[in-house]
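Incident log entry.

Two folding requests arrived from the same account within the same minute. Monitoring flagged them as a possible duplicate submission, but the sequences differ. Recording both here for audit purposes.

Request one:
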Amino acid sequence: MKKYLVLFFAIAAFSSCGSNTSIVNSWRDPDVTITQEQFKKVLVVALVKDEASRRIAENRIAASNPVFKTSYQYLNAASQLSKEEKLKVLQDENFDGVVSMRLVSKEKETTYVPGTYTGMYYGGFDGLYTGMYGYGFGNWYGMYSPNFYDPGYYQETTSYMVETNVFSLKQNKLIWTGTTESQYVTDLGQTVDAIMQAVVKEMRKDGSLPPK
C-alpha cells in the first residue's frame, strides 16, 4: 500500500471508536482525490491563538505518522514573512500537502434534566401474615416501600465547530474541507483524534479516499 494511503489510514486507526464528534458538512474538489496526490510530507497547522493548545493539537496528529510535520517547527521563525514567502519556505522544505484545523465557533447551551422518582423495596415476605415473626428486620421492613426523589438540574453543554482543510501545495489549491461538531469535550487530544476519525470516514464516503 502506498505511503499516501498509509498516511490517512493511520489516522483512523489512531482514533477512538466512540466519539461525540460528527461531520456537519463537507466539500471535495471533484477533479482531485487523495489517491491522486502523492503526499510524502504534510504540514499540520492548528489555527488557534493559544500556543499550548496549538502544539497539543499538532503534536497529536503528527504522532500518528512520520510524514506529518508540525507547523511550529517550520513557520514560527517565519511568522513575519508574507504569504508568498511562507509558501516558498514550504516548497524549499519539500512539503506537498497541508492539513489545517481552525475553530469556527464555540457555543454553550443550557438544558434542564428533569428529576426522577424511584420506588425502592427492601426485603419481602413469602406471605403477608404467615411467618412474619421468623424473619429478620430487613424482611419486616419489606412491608414498606420507601420512595426517593432525585431533583432535576441544569446542564451546560459546549459545542465546538472545527473546520478541517486539506490543501495540495503542488496544485496550490484546496482539495477537501469539512466542518465537525464536538460536544462534551474534556480532552483536547482525544477530540483531535475524533475529528480526524470523522474526517477520514467522510472522505471515504465521498470518494476522496478509497473504501476501508
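Request two (distinct sequence, not a duplicate):
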Amino acid sequence: MTPRLIHPVLDTAALPRLVDALVEQGWYLGEAVIAPELCAELHRELTLLADHDALDAAGIGRGQAHALRRDIRGDAIRWLDRESLAQRRYLDAMGELQNALNRALFLGLFEYEAHFAHYPPGAFYQRHLDSFRGRANRVISTVAYLNPDWPADGGGEMVIFDAIDPEREVARARPAAGTFVCFLSETVPHEVLPTRLPRASIAGWFRRNASLGGRVDPAR
C-alpha cells in the first residue's frame, strides 16, 4: 500500500497519484496540493526579499562552469535555510515526501535542497534538464508555485516535454498558488515561458549519493 503523507502542508490524497505518475510517465502535475495559507506566507516572504534586493541572480552550470546568462535564465534566487516558520514547514513537508518516496520506490533519497525563485516580468528559462545522466546526484525535481490569483494570460507557465521525444510538449503548469510539480531530474526536459507578471515559486531537488542511472521502479 502506498504510504500517505500526514503533514497538513500537503494534500494527502495527492501522494498515490504522484507516485503512480512518476513511475508511469516520469512527471507529476497537481493543483491545490500545497496549503493556501502556507503559499501566502511564503509568497509574502519572497516578495519582501525581492523588494529589498535580497535575491541573487541565478546562473547556469556549477563550479568553474557557472555563469550568468540572462539570455537563458532570468530569475533571481535565495536558498531556503529554515530561518522562518514558513520555510521550516515547507521543508519538513518535503522531508516527509522524501521518506514516502523512499518507502514506495526505494530511491535512496538522502537530502533535499530548495530555493525561492523570483521571475520579474519578461523573464524566462530556456529548455533544459536539471541533471545530466551519470554526472550529478539530483534525482527528483520539485516546483511549488506561490502566486495568488494568477490570471490566464499571466504567462510564466512551465512546459514539460517528453523524455523520449524532447520536442513534444506533454504538459503545461500554470504557476498558480498551490500547484506542485515533480519530475525525474535527469530525463524530463522543461522550460519556463516568459512571464507577464512577477512570478514566485520554490524549486527543489531530492538528492542521493549517486545518480539514478535508470528508470524508477515501483515497490513490489
